[in-house]
Specification:
Nucleotidyltransferase, domain 5; 7 strands; rod-shaped; five-stranded mixed β-sheet; two-stranded antiparallel sheet
Length: 345
């Protein structure tokens, strides 16, 4: 009885509804019947079914009253999933909007310029980057400069300081050489920090102050091009020697006690001389030692390559370019202890 009364009221209500609404309701009911008639234990909704209800939600205001097979919340979830999928595809296709991210290589180059040039500001670095073809704004460079390491290694700072002053620095020192008769000769030398050139070398058995002063006159015969002369606290470098150094308008700089590393350029040359020459010969007399040292100084300046000079020689050795199959000529140095290699003429 109640079902019949409900059916009658439903028919009366449909008499007053518009034709468009009845057609949409009929289409919705038919779509659900098709889904229910599929041969599955549980009705499954395909992509077309989901799109149908998503569109119906947009164009039909009373779509919830005719929905039976799923809940309205499910349709809303389908719509939101489609919304996310749509904008995900759009974001992949569209070009990037906003400021472009600074590449990692450019950031590292900015950090390198800040460390290597502590006095440079953003305008100077911006100009250098423009010369290299990088299009960045000066404000971007200022932003990354704040994150750059400001304190370089102390050793590198000292290395840069010494390189900028090495042309004005020279050093002198002694080293001993035993002879075949168990005597001892004292080898005196003066070396320039600029490219490690030997300015003067001589040998004696009795290194007095007067003899050292004479060697300094020979090492600096004219107006001295060096401003500082480094030497240790050996007793041979007494007050007379210091006065003679000052007379040549060179400022004497004595190292600390037991600190040979403070005169490292001179100490390094002594080690090279011993390893390359003196460890392989027996000195006969003073004349023999002078001849060996003269030949070694010539070899050291003209032939021997140095790591500190980027594998060049102190006096500069020309690089020869040969053909595809060049013929190499070996030239002995220091009696055959070392050799120099050149292209055949």
């Amino acid at each position: 009885m109640f079902r019949f009364v409900g059916l009658c009221f439903g028919m009366l209500g449909r008499f007053f509804r518009g034709r468009r609404s009845l057609l949409l309701e009929n289409l919705a009911l038919r779509q659900q019947l098709v889904a229910l008639k599929r041969r599955h234990p549980r009705p499954s909704l395909g992509l077309f079914d989901k799109l149908f209800w998503v569109v119906a939600r947009r164009v039909w205001s009373v779509w919830k009253q005719s929905l039976i097979i799923v809940t309205p919340e499910t349709v809303v979830r389908w719509h939101r999933s489609g919304f996310r999928m749509y904008w995900r595809l759009i974001s992949r296709v569209r070009r990037q909007v906003g400021r472009r991210r600074t590449p990692k290589e450019v950031r590292e180059l900015i950090f390198r310029m800040v460390v290597e040039n502590p006095t440079w500001g953003a305008p100077r670095i911006h100009g250098e980057l423009r010369m290299l073809g990088f299009e960045l704004s000066e404000r971007t460079i200022s932003h990354w400069m704040k994150r750059a390491p400001r304190e370089p290694d102390r050793a590198k700072r000292w290395l840069a300081f010494l390189r900028n002053h090495r042309e004005a620095i020279a050093a002198m020192d002694f080293f001993t050489v035993p002879t075949i008769t168990f005597g001892v000769f004292y080898c005196f030398f003066v070396i320039s920090h600029d490219r490690g050139r030997i300015l003067h070398v001589n040998v004696t058995k009795h290194p007095t102050s007067g003899w050292i002063i004479q060697q300094l006159r020979e090492a600096f015969p004219f107006e001295a091009s060096h401003k500082y002369l480094i030497f240790d606290r050996d007793q041979k470098f007494g007050i007379e020697v210091i006065a003679a150094v000052k007379a040549t308008r060179i400022i004497p700089k004595r190292t600390s006690f037991r600190s040979p590393w403070q005169n490292g350029i001179a100490e390094r040359w002594v080690g090279s001389c011993r390893r390359d020459l003196l460890d392989h010969v027996i000195v006969l007399n003073e004349r023999h030692l002078n001849k060996l040292l003269s030949e070694y100084v010539r070899y050291f300046h003209e032939d021997r390559t140095h790591l500190g000079l980027h594998k060049e020689t102190p006096l500069g050795r020309a690089v020869t370019m040969g053909n595809a199959q060049p013929r190499i000529v070996s030239r002995p140095r220091l009696g055959g202890l070392h050799h120099r290699y050149d292209l055949a003429a």
